[in-house]
Design brief:
Elements: H1 2-60, H2 75-85, E1 91-92, H3 93-100, H4 107-116, E2 121-126, E3 129-134, H5 136-145, H6 152-155
Antiparallel strand pairs: 1-3, 2-3
Helix pairs in contact: 2-3, 2-4
Length: 156
């Protein structure tokens, strides 16, 4: 019986060693899983902070980043704006003056003032002459949202 007892004892020892190896592997895996879980929580926290910063940045620039801030235009500026707004092609200073019925000497200053008030203008040079038009995206926004008051009462 002593051989049988030694064999059984040897088998139990082998099973015990195998179980200890499995337990060690499980503990290592659990440690790796915990490390990854901690890393993901830290990453989530950083993403939340970044999202909060982006929200604050958007709020500081105005709630709607797509809608530009435009100052109101005076009577002369409105005439020039309307002339540019209704034309598909860029216009020279001479053409703007003729169509808006304003003196040509006022047009360069008026164009600068309109641009300074937040209206995006496109400038094109052709044959040494400057041509101006309003940015197409802005024209689309004006048509949809009426960023600039163009009512008849505002001209009087």
């Amino acid at each position: 019986m002593s051989n049988l007892y030694k064999n059984i004892r040897g088998e139990f020892h082998n099973v015990r060693n195998a179980l200890e190896e499995h337990l060690t592997a499980i503990n290592e895996n659990t440690s790796e899983i915990q490390t990854m879980f901690d890393y993901l929580q830290e990453l989530d926290l950083k993403i939340d902070k970044l999202s909060s910063r982006l929200d604050n940045l958007q709020l500081s620039q105005g709630c709607n980043l797509d809608k530009p801030e435009v100052e109101s235009l005076n009577h002369t500026e409105r005439k020039v704006f309307l002339t540019l707004y209704t034309e598909a092609q860029p216009l020279s200073f001479q053409e703007i003056g003729d169509r808006s019925q304003l003196p040509n000497s006022l047009i360069p200053e008026c164009i600068s003032s309109i641009s300074a008030k937040g209206i995006p203008l496109c400038r094109t040079f052709c044959n040494g002459q400057l041509f101006i038009n309003i940015d197409k995206n802005f024209k689309d926004m004006q048509a949809k949202e009426g960023l600039i008051n163009l009512s008849l009462e505002s001209f009087m």
